Amino acid sequence: MTTDLLLVNAIVGIVIPLIVQLLASRTSPDWVKVVVNVALSAAVAVLAPLVTSPHVDWKIVALSFVQVFAVAIVSHLGVLKPAGVTGSEGAIATKFSGGLG
Questions:
Q1: What is the domain count for the chain?
Q2: Of 37, 23, 21, which Cα lies nearest the Cα of 72?
Q3: Does 101 reside within a domain?
Q4: 63-96 pLDDT per residue, tens
Q5: 33 in any annotated domain
Q6: Residue 40 structural domain
Q7: Helix count (H) and strand count (E) of the chain?
Q8: 17, 78 contact by CB (below 8 A)
Q9: CA-CA distance, 69 to 58, in Å (whole number)?
Q10: 98: buried, middle or exposed (CB in 10 Å: 19+, 13-18, 0-12)?
Q11: Is 20 a domain residue?
Q12: Burial status of residue 15 (CB atoms within 10 A of its CB: 0-12, 13-18, 19 or more)
């Protein structure tokens, strides 16, 4: 994995919880938010290596998925939710209602 790919994965992994919060309503079941998170992480894991390198190996895609998903979960639970940005009572959920679920 190149440094560029690691950086792209980390940055997008931090942004994914914000996108999940916008796409899922505040009353959505947790499984809906997990499915959206996994789907976005999988999409990034496939697209990011294509953007940063002309030759893509499926091992890199798998590692990218693990990295993006882990960063998304850690940033949500460790930073964004405690700061009141994401979560059912977070700033995004209270300002933007609607979404899936």
A1: 1
A2: 37
A3: no
A4: 999 999 999 999 999 999 999 998 888 888 888 7
A5: yes
A6: 3-95
A7: 4, 0
A8: no
A9: 16
A10: exposed
A11: yes
A12: middle
